[in-house]
Write a structure and sequence with these properties.
The structure holds two protein chains of two kinds. Helices cover 51% and strands 7% of the residues of chain A. Chain A is mostly helical. In chain A, the strands form two sheets. Chain A has a three-stranded antiparallel β-sheet. A two-stranded antiparallel ribbon of chain A has the order 4-5. In chain A, a hairpin with a 3-residue loop joins strand 2 and strand 3. Chain B is α+β, with helices and mostly antiparallel strands. Chain B has nine helices and seven strands, in the order H-H-E-H-H-E-E-H-E-H-E-E-H-E-H-H. In chain B, the strands form three sheets. In chain B, strands 1-3-2 form a three-stranded antiparallel β-sheet, with no helix packed on it. Chain B has a two-stranded antiparallel ribbon with strand order 4-7. A two-stranded antiparallel sheet of chain B has the order 5-6. In chain B, a hairpin with a 5-residue loop joins strand 5 and strand 6. The longest helix of chain B has 29 residues. Classes of the chains: A mainly alpha, B alpha+beta. Chain A: It comes from Aromatoleum toluvorans.
């Protein structure tokens, strides 16, 4: 990696145009909402152990909200099924609710609006941008799908939830609520990997849990659309902030499709492209809304 | 061949198909290696430390590791903070619930809230009577430091046992050291011990307990199924399976019932009088200095 030779002043901050055009608040609206969602969910889990206010018990793997609403991670259930057990109906119902939500909202909404690891990798991506770190070795974005397949195979072969022994995502959330042990090391490893070795390496290329949610959201209703793409001035800010930059081109530049809706299943619906665009090119809509303005 | 001929025509690299195949092979290979590593690690690390006990109703360890989603709902509903989720580095499958009896034992709640809370069945909802739980089996493991084995009356493990007089009994034995006292030895019975660990927790020894709850697999030997116990067979058949035995008289025990070879002082055959050997009565070796 090397620090880019361009002096800092010559590189305007990503999103500077948007701030100038829309004001700071509107240029960070989706980011703020997303952080509120991530931290709010975390706070709901932590209110019990920290303040004795039991809103949600458990963790993202499986939880019980207000004593009535069961929620279970479908990726964990898939591993459990692969390992050869059929869980009780509590877990099946919980999984059903979660699956129904992400089928509509978009699978990767979990990654950008719920998953605590997003805070870690977003921080790494931000720092990488600020320090101007370049280079490294980025694995193929398909690695995650292979990992997902092989992890299910490993669960089947070992008869246990093999991935959960090392899964940094569930480990981080569980660690925050129940205690970390040495799990800090794994989370720190993900941060350093994203910072020094591969841009968006973990969430965008390796995480099999993200791959699972990508597949889950293949036909999601809620999608981002580059509806006002005629106004695009090629500033590239959306590509700079997007955690899955390859999803933008087909919609924005009409590469391989004629409508402006981002249908790629890897789009996390994070809305950051909407924030940083000074030309208001993007908006959140449904997959059926192919209109342009 | 065709691909080799394509080479100069394309952008100077291998054909797209070949590049795709090579990339896919690399990615799949890497993912496969990583999964293999994870799988082997999971397999190798799935041995539970002997002092880590699973909550009541836990499936056998292999099934438990397939069913438990590491959510911690059992931990949350345990009123005594007995249960904990394993952290990375604890040597237990990360995120799975366990307890150490010496630290906080299971209080054997009648409603078994931890089992009720489990959404997946890693803790079997079929367990409704906590007395039928088998979290482990208490073993009085150290006969050298246990105070009752020294002939003292500690009895604490027996007194605290929630299934007193069934899971732990005091068995009276002769104390050969003083030769006039009894030893009351705490004895665990596997038909009633739930493995709650109250005995281990309350053992008065300062550090390690003399009585410990161990996983059933460590605590129990396999039953000698191939062995047919004569007394049981005799009772079942109503008579000895080998028929009446030939009774031969034993010299000196003629007055006693057959098979009773116990001899009280003064009874039994009189030994030949042992006279001390007189000097010179032995064999003469003929040796002279």
């Amino acid at each position: 990696m090397s620090v880019a030779a361009v002096p800092k002043a010559a590189r305007p901050r990503v999103g500077a145009d948007a701030i100038a055009a829309k004001g700071w608040l509107r240029a960070h609206r989706w980011l703020i909402l997303r952080r509120l969602s991530q931290l709010g969910i975390l706070a709901a889990f932590l209110a019990g152990p920290w303040f004795g206010l039991w809103i949600v018990k458990g963790n993202l793997s499986s939880s019980l909200t207000l004593g009535v609403l069961p929620l279970t991670d479908p990726f964990l259930l898939a591993q459990s099924l692969a390992a050869g057990t059929l869980p009780y109906k509590e877990a099946l119902i919980g999984t059903g609710i979660v699956v129904a939500f992400y089928l509509v909202a978009g699978g990767r909404v979990f990654c950008s609006w719920v998953c605590p690891m997003n805070l870690v990798t977003d921080a790494a991506a931000w720092l990488r941008r600020r320090l101007g770190l370049k280079g490294g070795k980025i694995p193929s974005g398909d690695t995650r799908y292979w990992l997902l397949g092989f992890m299910l195979l490993a669960a089947f072969a070992s008869g246990s939830l093999a991935w959960e022994w090392v899964n940094p995502v569930s480990m981080l959330h569980r660690g925050l609520i129940f205690g970390f042990g040495l799990a800090w090391g794994i989370v720190g490893g993900v941060f350093l990997y994203d910072l020094l070795i591969a841009t968006r390496g973990w969430c965008g290329h390796l995480c099999p849990m993200g791959a699972f949610y990508s597949l889950l959201g293949s036909a999601a209703l809620v999608r981002v659309s580059a509806a006002h793409r005629s106004a695009c001035d090629d500033c590239m800010d959306c590509f700079a902030v997007c955690p899955e930059p390859q999803v933008i081109r087909p919609a924005l530049k009409a590469a391989g499709q004629d409508h402006p809706v981002i249908l790629d299943r890897n789009c996390t619906n994070c809305g950051r492209c909407i924030d940083v665009c000074g030309r208001n090119v993007f908006r959140i809509t449904t997959r059926f809304d192919r209109s342009e303005s | 061949m065709a691909e080799v001929q394509d080479k100069p025509v394309g952008q100077g690299g291998p054909s797209p198909r070949r590049r795709f195949l090579r990339e896919a092979a690399g990615v799949a290979g890497g993912a496969c290696l990583l999964s293999l590593g994870v799988g082997l690690y999971a397999k190798q690390a799935s041995a539970l430390p002997a002092t880590a006990l699973r909550p009541p109703g836990a499936l056998a360890e292999a099934d438990f590791l397939a069913a438990c989603v590491r959510c911690g709902l059992c931990v949350r509903d345990c009123p005594y903070d007995t249960l904990r989720l394993a952290e990375l580095g604890d040597g237990i499958a990360t995120g799975t619930p366990y307890f150490h009896a010496r630290q906080i034992p299971c209080e054997m709640c009648e409603t078994i809230p931890c089992v009720v809370a489990c959404p997946t069945g890693a803790l079997d909802h079929g367990l409704t009577d906590i007395g039928k739980a088998r979290m482990g089996l208490a073993v009085l493991i150290d006969h050298e430091t246990c105070l009752n084995f020294l002939g003292l009356r500690c009895d604490v493990c027996y007194r605290v046992c929630p299934v007193i007089d069934k899971a732990i009994t005091l068995e009276r034995q002769h104390n050969p050291r003083s030769d006039r006292h009894a030893m009351l030895l705490p004895t665990v019975h596997s038909d009633h011990c739930t493995g709650c660990g109250k005995c281990e927790k309350s053992c008065v020894l300062p550090g390690e307990a003399a009585i410990k709850v161990l996983p059933l697999k460590l605590a129990q030997g396999s039953k000698a199924e191939h062995y047919r116990k004569g007394w049981e067979e005799k009772e079942a058949a109503g008579e000895s399976l080998i028929g009446e035995q030939l009774e031969l008289p034993v010299r000196g025990l003629e007055g006693k019932s057959y098979g009773d070879t116990r001899v009280a002082p003064g009874q039994g055959p009189t030994p030949a009088p042992a006279a001390p050997a007189r000097p010179g009565s032995g064999l003469d070796s003929g040796w002279k200095p």
